[in-house]
Amino acid sequence: LNQRDGELERLRGQAPGLAAELVQVRARLNSPKLVRAAYKDLNVLLERIRRVPGFEGFQRPPQIDQLRRLVRGGPVVLISASASRADALILTGDGGGDPVEVVRLPGLNREEAARQAERLATAARTAKRDLSPVERPASGPDEVLDVLAWLWDVAAEPVRSRLGFPSTPRDGQE
Fold this sequence. Notes:
The protein has helices at 5-14, 16-28, 35-50, 64-70, 110-129, 139-163; strands at 76-81, 86-91, 100-104. Helix 1 crosses helix 2, helix 2 runs antiparallel to helix 3 and helix 5 (110-129) crosses helix 6. The chain is built from six helices and three strands. The longest helix has 25 residues, at 139-163. Helices cover 52% and strands 10% of the residues. By secondary structure, it is mostly helical.
């Protein structure tokens, strides 16, 4: 539902009644008592909107060819972690081979990712709260470095290796 504002504005220009209905249905999604019926209404409404010429892909994920055209200057990597497995999905704009390469991440799982994300969030809250270097606990930066090291080991390094990038940047490179 987090769609580009431009898409909704374009709908307002061509089908203002449908756009107004969409805004109303979205508002109902925030009410626990109305959410089930609102999702049903949303699906019906989206199908109506998609019948309007030029809105066939309204609020749908972009097609792989569209994403490929947007990739410039290097690959785009999405990390996906579920209860059963974790993968890195690598999209490149080179046009050859499979559009998405899957790299299995056996060292990553959803529970550990959530734990590490909480460690990072806690360190960020601590850093915001304790702006004085004298009062800042020494563990804050260590927590961040620990999380980044973990992330490197379980996700970034396997992706870097698969892409064939050098293990460390050369002098003068970022």
